[in-house]
Amino acid sequence: MASGTTIRMWRRTLFLLVVMIGLGFGWILFNLVRLQLVEGEELRSMALDQSLQTTSLSAQRGTIYDCNGNVLAESASVWTVALEPAYIKDDDTRRTLAKGLADILDMDEEDIYALTKKDTYFTYVKRKVETSVRDEINEFLEENKIDRGVQLIEDYKRYYPYGDFLSQTLGFTGTDSQGLSGLETQYNDELSGTAGRLVTAKNAAGTDMPFEYEQKIEAQDGNNLVLTIDSNVQSILEEGLKQGIIDNDVQEGAVAVLMNVKTGAILGLAVEGSFDPNDPFTLMDEEVQKEIDALPEDEQDKAYNNALQKQWRNKAVSDTYYPGSVFKMCTGSMALEEGVVTEETRFTCTGSTTVAGETLHCWTSGHGEETFVQGLCNSCNPYFMWIGEQLGALTFFKYFDAFGFTEKTGIDLPGEGTTLYHGADMGPVELATESFGQNFSITPIHMITACAAVANGGYLVQPHLVDHIEDSDGNIVSTTDTSYRRQVISEDTSRRMVDILHTNATSGTAKNGYIAGYRICGKTGTSQKILEDNIDTSKKHYIASYCGFAPADDPEYALLIFFDEPEGDSYYGGSVAGPVFANCMSQILPYLGVEPVYTEEELSRLDTTVENVVGEGTDTAKTKLDQEGFTVIIKGDGDKVLAQSPAGGEKIPKQGTVVLYTTKESQEETVTVPDLTGLSFSQANERATNAGVQICMTGAITGNGVSQSQSIEAGEKVKQGTVITVNFVEADAVM
Predict the structure, then answer these.
(1) Is residue 446 within 8 Å of 461, Cβ to Cβ?
(2) Are strands 266-272 and 657-661 parallel, antiparallel or unpaired?
């Protein structure tokens, strides 16, 4: 019995053992199936992630060029400093590295020493160090005979060689080299390129494996932008705005936009004030910074951020304004196109018009009877209110929409402002005020684009700043389409309006933008600003502008000048923006190859160039200058010309005076520059002659011109005969 019991027990034991083994192997088999077939891919991915470490390698951001190939923004090499602790074999080397790198990188020695002891083949120390710092590190390593343990990896940092030049348009990048404003944001994808990767392997203990297990995928550099901007044009515009701000005590900055009317290419886009994109988070206006510093501490951050946003803001694209009387070139074009008026259509201005029970005024007490040409040259508001009534709301709005005012222009910059306007169901008062440029708001880019359509035969162009995009090897990737968006008015209407605007620049309210020989067409604007609710409305604020183009016989370039809140002697567009327009265009048009064509009257007043006679005998020099019609004054008793005033090559009035210096002592003689402002042509010339200097006249040099500014300040000491440029404005050219 005992034997049978024993056999049964062994059988049970064997059975239980078989069952347990079967269950165990079954569980193992189940998990093998689950791990291999069900979760295999996920586990393989996790294992790979744990065994590999990926380091991003920066791509070089594309360069931004102007149209002449000048670099406006570029990425230069900087360096990332990294340690390879696994290759640092002894503590003395760790201490040497920690101290040396700490001194060079201006870091804490103990922090770097702790990094040298990490169980890894790679760890970061510092990023974005300059090449000069890299060179110091290499020199230190060589001096201390350290050949492993430190890696220097190339990276890139954005530089803007010209500082605050074109800053709102270019924008800037962040620490991660991503565009944060301007073209840097708009074209970020094209400029950024594709980052590379450095893949390193780890062993089972989690330690980085040696470099032979590394895999490096090279970065692909970004594309380059070639702009339509011409740096020379841009410089002229920026300098013109800066001087205009000073001369007219402008409070809220200024804008200047120069456009090719046939293509929509923008050659210059200046905004004042500006900022330095190399240091975008520093406020350029020291007075604003002082005001922020004086605020309670809990208010400073908000004020600082608001000030930053303001200095980064591109007023030409993002800010809207009432265009004022410059818009009359559009209303006039509508009227000519629809046959509502001809050049000779007459209207009588009494100084005001009553519309739907509301009295709307002209800028003067009344112009009396005037033709359409005279009405535009007089910038007569009642005449244009009457034109608006004749057109009717539906027709007016049809052209308003066709000129592009109801939508964004699509310029290739971020943050374009949204226009505010009344639709085709506008009332009679809205129609009347909009007819002369008030009661709706547009951006400066809208206005210059509409002006181009008036000038170029009636075609609406696409404003743009990028001409084409190139890859890093210089191959063209894409080119901007410059085809017209649509035709707004006929070529005949355009030609007729061009003639009228040319008349306005030579004998109307736009005379202050006149430039002899360059067939300027222009219209002034003085618009009241839209004020925020918290602004004191007891004081009115204005925007003074001048919008024009040249040459009248074949328009090529349009320029809009815009000053926000001038608080000097005048706030009118004609006297504030007109002279700046003339000053800028007188430099830009010759540079761009526009040839002057002078009338007989202009030729009679045209300045000439004085010949250089330094080094010649006194008698020979005098004879030569006499033959050219100049008055010659000789200083000293020498027999050779040592210096002359004006210098050779300078512009001088016809039949002007040239002073020749024949001794060193005579060259020390000076005269005092008189105050030449606030005078008529004859008065300024007489005062200059009596003081021993001479003047070149610019601006409104016909009619009732009054001198507004002079190139050399009163009271300065200069050589006798020095030529001073005096700018004249038309006293009654205000709108």
Answers:
(1) no
(2) unpaired
* Three-state secondary structure string covering 8-51: HHHHHHHHHHHHHHHHHHHHHHHHHHHHHHHCHHHHHHHHHHHH
CATH number of 317-602: 3.40.710.10
Contact 435, 384 (CB under 8 A): yes
Q: Interhelix angle for 328-338 vs 444-455, to 10°?
A: 40
Q: What is the mean pLDDT of the chain?
A: 87
Contact 527, 324 (CB under 8 A): yes
Identify the H or E element spanning 126: strand 123-129
pLDDT at site 326: 96
Question: What fold characterizes domain 609-730?
Answer: Trypsin Inhibitor V; Chain A (3.30.10)
- Rounded CA separation 275/180 (Å): 14
Catalytic residue among 167, 231, 325, 570: 325
Q: Which amino acid is at 445?
A: I
CA-closest candidate to residue 152, choices 104, 208, 114: 104
Contact criterion met (CB below 8 Å) for 460 and 484: yes
Q: How far apart are CA 523 and CA 344, in angstroms?
A: 19
pLDDT at 637: 86
Class of domain 55-227 as given by CATH:
alpha beta
Ordered DSSP codes for 290-344: HHHHTS-HHHHHHHHHHHHHHHH--HHHH--B--GGGGHHHHHHHHHHHTS--TT
Q: What is the 3 state secondary structure string of 194-251?
A: ECEEEEEEECCCCCECCHHHCEEECCECCCEEEECCCHHHHHHHHHHHHHHHHHHCEC
What is 148-170 written as a DSSP string? Answer: SSEEEEEEEEEE-TTTTTTHHHH
At residue 105, what are phi and psi to the nearest 5 degrees? -95, 0
Spell out the SS3 assignment of 620-664: HHHHHHHHCCCEEEEECCCCECCEEECCCCCEECCCCEEEEECCC
Using DSSP, state whether 505 is helix, strand or coil. helix
Rounded to whole angstroms, how far apart are CA atoms 22 and 20?
5
Return the structure tokens found at 143: 């001096």
Q: What CA–CA distance (Å, rounded) separates 108 from 92?
A: 17
Quote the CA–CA distance of 392 and 608 in Å, as a whole number. Answer: 53
Is 3 annotated as catalytic?
A: no
Say whether pLDDT at 1 is over 60. no
* Residues found in the chain: 735
- Phi-psi domain of 532 (left: phi exceeds 0; alpha: psi -120 through 50; beta: other): beta
C-alpha to C-alpha distance for 562 and 560, rounded to whole angstroms: 6
Please give the average per-residue pLDDT across 389-416, as a whole number: 96
Chain center to CA of 148: 48
Tell me the longest C-alpha to C-alpha distance in the chain. 157
29 Cβ contact partners less than 8 Å away, ≥ 6 residues apart: none
Using DSSP bridges, classify how beta strands 651-652 and 694-699 pair: parallel, antiparallel or unpaired.
unpaired
More confident residue, 343 or 27: 343
- Residues with Cβ within 8 Å of residue 622, at least 6 apart in sequence: 632, 634, 660
What span, in angstroms and rounded, lies between the C-alpha atoms of 579 and 245? 12
User: In this structure, what are the phi and psi dihedrals at residue 63, rounded to the nearest 5 degrees?
Assistant: -90, 145
**R_g over Cα of the chain:** 37
Question: Helix 491-507 and helix 328-338: axis angle, to 10°?
Answer: 140
Identity of the amino acid at 131: T
Q: How confident is the model at residue 251 (pLDDT cuts 50, 70, 90)?
A: very high
- pLDDT tens digit sequence for 412-463: 999 999 999 999 999 999 999 999 999 999 999 999 999 999 999 999 999 9
Mean pLDDT of 553-560: 97
